[in-house]
Amino acid sequence: MRYLIGKGFIGSNLSKKLDVIHIPHDNIKSTRLKAFDYFYFCSSYGNMATHDDEDQMYKANVEDLMTVLKKIRGMKFKSFVFLSTSSVMLKTQTTYSRFKRVAEEILLAYMERHDVPICIIRPFTIYGPNEQPEHLIPTILRSCFKGEQMNFVSEPVHDYLFIDDLTNGIISLSEHRTRGIFQLGTGHASSNQEVLLLIEEISGKKANINKVNSLRAYDNTDWVSNNYKARGYGWLPKYTLRQGLEKVVEDYIKNPKKYENSLI
């Protein structure tokens, strides 16, 4: 049996590959958990600019986690996977990344005390078909295909990981019953400018951009994963940035409306 909390971009894609029982956040306290093999905690409220409710941020990332850990105390299982964020490693922290870091520490202490397999995953910048419309890639796509003007910062870099590579990594690490913290990314940094040029080349269209200075305090030019631990368990990303963006552009052309309405 496999449980899943969180059906946003990552959780919904993971559920396409696994037979899972989804537990809505509103039902966590009332749900009676049965014996299970795998638990995937993919809650992510707070990872977008529009997520500004700090009480909800705490509930989704810390309080709900504590509720689950109390419910499974004494149970034996193959893997408990927690989706954290690579932002916990940045010099400039957000409220969201701090809550994720608190959750990590709780899980590490729980793992040591109860001797259970807990896998904490720090994914880098995840992208793919149907990602949140507010993110950079969907915004560039709308600018290219609809002419929407967008504010654009060219210098910041990200380690872009295609969603299929992430979900494969989650499954692989859980099935290997790994313990501890794992970074999942390609190990290669790409700037916003590189992403823009690739999308323009693939789509054959030009974006309508307004160049501005950095929009976020934590934007930087050195944000890349060290995924050697995950590689030790046989996981490797399969998609280059170009290959992944080709998939996204193809999906946008087929389903442009998906890139205008938020998933959560």
From TrEMBL:
It holds the Pfam family Epimerase. Residues 46-184 form the NAD-dependent epimerase/dehydratase domain. Belongs to the NAD(P)-dependent epimerase/dehydratase family. This is Putative NADH dehydrogenase.
